[in-house]
Amino acid sequence: MTDSIEARLAARGIALPAPAAPxxxxxxxVRFDSSLQISGQLPTENGKLAVAGKxxxxxxxxxxxxxxxxxxxxxxxxxxxxxxxxETILRxxxxxxxxxxxxxxxxxxxxxxxASDFMVEILGEKGRHARxxxxxxxxxxxxxxxxxxxxxxx
Length: 154
Description:
CATH 3.30.1330.40, two-stranded antiparallel sheet, 3 helices
């Protein structure tokens, strides 16, 4: 991939939103040496929670994957706000994907693919990463998915 990250986003009609402000006593992002650690992002779109509820109950797998993709877009928005330039991303190191799940739901890894596939699509080889997909009883604001990330940056 020779085109820029911004060009790949634009080609897919994706405009990064303004990054969400922290909802409590924490910061959205911490940069330490070449590490950029981004706090959990929710599936917001146009400033509002877009996918709420639990996977395996009120939320379908497809909607969960869409939620994960929205979280990934919001992670990139935080990265850009902190670094000023997405081209400083050298590699996505890890995604931690939290999925609000009905007790019988066991496809958290498939939900997480919504974010993983998006990151590889937009970042190319730099987007291949380690990952955890974790089912949880609930998430803030009844979000269906929350994702945090660690990037290596220049």
